Amino acid sequence: MANNFNEAKKEYFQTLKQYVPIVERVHGGSHQEFYEVRKLFDTIVEKTKEAGSNKPELNQEFAQLREITNNYTVPVDVCESYEAVYKMLSEIDKAYHA
Questions:
Q1: Structural domain of 54
Q2: What percent of the chain clears pLDDT 70, i.e. is strictly above it?
Q3: Domain total for the chain?
Q4: What is residue 78's DSSP assignment?
Q5: In whole angstroms, what is the distance from residue 50 CA to residue 45 CA?
């Protein structure tokens, strides 16, 4: 588990960049909320890039993610990759607010 946002970013962003589009393609039809999860993740990545070495302002994005995902509750009918995405997003959220 990452202790701060920079560690979480290093640990999870690359994997999430690979998983999120795949999970969206596979599960988006039956889990419409994932389209919004993808948009928010893309915004988080972009804002993080723009911030450079500074901490980006992501409170709104994480608040929306928690609302859309019901605090990262994994639906029962999804694959392990979907579950992994929610776990990684949750860890990044926690690290951001630590």
A1: 5-96
A2: 97
A3: 1
A4: -
A5: 9
